[in-house]
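Figure S7 source data.
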Amino acid sequence: MLTPQFFYEQLRQYGVEFYTGVPDSLLKNFCAYVTDVSSKNNHIIAVNEGTATGLACGYHLATGKIPLVYMQNSGLGNATNPLLSLADKKVYSIPLLLLIGWRGEPETKDEPQHISQGEVTLSMLEAMNIPYSVLNKDENIASAQLKNIFEHISQKNEPYAIVVQKETFAPYSLNNITADISELSREDAIAEVIKHIDKNDIVVSTTGMISRELYELREQNRQAHSQDFLTVGSMGHASQIALGIALNKPDKKVYCLDGDGAALMHLGGLATVADCAPKNYIHIIFNNAAHDSVGGQPTIANSINLQELSKAFGYSITGKAANIDEIKNFFNILENKNISPALLEICVKKGSRKDLGRPKSTPVANKIDFMNFILKNI
Ligand SMILES: Cc1ncc(C[n+]2csc(CCOP(=O)(O)OP(=O)(O)O)c2C)c(N)n1
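Tokens for the predicted thiamine diphosphate complex:
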């Protein structure tokens, strides 16, 4: 394994000083180290991998230096456009170092949402004409790889990807942990929210721990899972899935259980929700100001007023809660006024139960149950 410090120092020798990206579980030790040792302007956690790529290109234009953009391989889709139409050799030819966590690598065990992306990661890079190396876990070999990589980038002035397998980086615990913004746990907040959701209502939950906690709570409560669509992948798209359902099933309430990182990733979707103005849409953002599911790195949600923002987008009613009573109050208001689209920001603390399980059914089984539920109930 490579220590994050070793890898960071190697990159520093080649002049890499600027880091941006979206956290990934395979890169979390390295990203934690970068967070601890970088100044605010030298490490910017971006809202999505596409914006990170744009930001890195701007950094290069201003400094002539090579920036590093880190991402999970699922973020390659978000980054494809600026990689091919901005940084690409046939356009502005901008040297970028990409550090890509390889979830779903063939022959390794991973969750369903990573399998196809894992299978095509290298061939996607090949199709995009982005040269790559799979980072070796041995220090001497990794050093030699970096030497070749930087020679290549400086000669060719183009993006180059370093692909990172599971357990490449040795453990490192973040020292600069941001303070929790609430004492309420996300699981307790979800438990309260689902008390207010009727068994005939529809729920779309976002990727990561939120869907896992929702699933476990249904098990604990001996409730069926069929009213819940667990968006196991596709980070940032749950609000639009919920919108598509809400517009087409106007007689049922549709709840989107979102994360702050996911909502920020495709924030423009909130404007679409407000513009479509469904009469049955309740958006709940569990805000821990962190990418909790992949290591707890901060998001910028704590410096944004999500309530004012969603009001400005055009949500009809917005609220903020940081404890169970405030959640109850918001649902009381909703019940009395019945206005939509509604948005409730619930401030929660980081962290989850150590023994939190994962959904036992497959995504396709979840989809079939969910669609049967919709057909039967509406
Ligand atoms: C496009 C994309 N980029 C990165 C990831 C890795 N990822 C999975 S969950 C997650 C964090 C989600 O944060 P948030 O929505 O705030 O929910 P939390 O985990 O804090 O509850 C990230 C970055 C991903 N799944 N997809």
